[in-house]
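Next up, a specimen:

>
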Amino acid sequence: MTRRSDSFVLMLLMAVALMVGCGKGSILPQLGEDGRGLPQALLQADSLMNSRPDSALAVLERAEVEIAGESRSVRMRYQLLRHQAMNKAFVPFTSDSLMLDVADYYDRHGTANDRMLAHYLLGCVYRDLKEGPHAIDCFQKAIANADTTSEDCNFRVLSSVYSQMARVFHQQLLLSYEVEARRQSGHYATIVGDTLIAISELNMSANAYILMNKQDSSEILLHKAIRQYMKCNRIREALLASTSLMYLYIDKPQHLSDLKQLIDQYEEKSGLFDEHHDLPPSKRIFYYYKGKYFEGTNRLDSAEFYYRKMFRPNMSFSSLDPMYRGLLSVFSKRHQADSIAKYSQLYCEVNDSSIAIKDQDLTAQLAASYDYHYYKEQSLENENKALWALFAFIVTLIILTILIIGFVYLVKRFHKTQIRLRRIHYAREEELLRIHEQEKDKLQQAYYQSQKQAKLEYEQKLTQLKLRQEEELTASRKKELSRKYFNHDVVLRSIRIANDPRQFLTEKAFDDLLTVTYEHFPVVQQEFEQAKDLKPQMKRVCILSILDIHVDDIGAL
């Protein structure tokens, strides 16, 4: 090949690279990025978004028909604003289809703030769909798209991203991750001057430390949050935060005076008590703290009074738990055997039901985790397919270019040979034929190479098909194993007993259930053996979660 031909090939490959690069982002400004060219309804909704999200959503819904006829950039901006308004107005999301398109669009066309907002809202969609790990993945992509070095970075949205991430971490009991996310949320809220959000994140971090059994850290943060609330003249918020301090102090005799002071302040300044000095149902845990104070000062009649004051119709198991616990403690100190037996049974029943309901949440989180890994594998598979398609396109383009250049080269060479034949007669004809055969061999080699490449690609696709068939066969076998497990006599008997409030699972019943579970799911046994510090009660929780027996409060374990 000549130097000119090599230069042509290089220029062609550069053109291909430019075409591929244009698929990831455009250098042209997008319609509406600065507000110009957008319909009036979108501008109006954007102006109402923070102060009146309900009104913003109403404006957008009225404009839906009008927007349907607009360009794609306007339609995408409409969906972005609509999902933002729904999120701010606490309208639950039920599908991810629209928001997936919006996030994909802004990945290729939007600003850093657009991409951050799009992935944040997609994470909120998965939050409402109870797909926690998938939501976390979207929130992390939103953070990765935030340009914190830019002056126009939307730190308010970034704060919300971390706050929602912390919420999902809390639901999955990843408390250390929750604390770090709330710290970041508070940091960015402070940057934009949203002091109340920053204090709220501080308060919720303290509650996470309580669940982590780090009471000293929790107490420090709660005092800090209460001081800041008082500084902002948010008395009610400060008093509500003080209830967490009450929880920390109820079993500490050295803090009884502090507990009494917090109780008095709450009763005097919270404004939550009605004319009969009663609290609304959602706040009646306060009576438990007050009952604990009286129990700590050995005034058992008053303690019993406030424990009973917690009662309300249709109480949840988690609400019954402290009431029965308090009454059981009072009657134990009075040595009243009948009452001790009664409330011991009630307290145990409430705890068993709480554990069952909580296990339902853990099972849902585990399922969401499996969904997340499935989506991740699908994403990687699609990415690999796209890379192979790009590779095949480039190889095919190179082969076609070589063939075209070779053809042009042969045509020119043929004409030169004809002229030479006229001048040198038959003496040079043999030499010309030999050269012609050499060039023919080159073309054949190029052809055989292309055939070999096509065969290789076919074999790769065939291998991928076989792998998918093997995966489907494995999934079918797992399904059959699960069916046999849930139809086993021991499992069916355990489910029936666990769902019957008049019966309970004995140690032997749990051992039988554990043996059957090990037989069908050896991986469960491996996990239990590796977790050397795992308590027997937590093994029961895990087994019950496999049986889909509902629980309410994991803290009751």
In short: Residues 1-35, 354-360, 366-374, 552-557 have pLDDT under 50 and may be disordered. The CA atoms of residues 294 and 302 lie 6 Å apart.
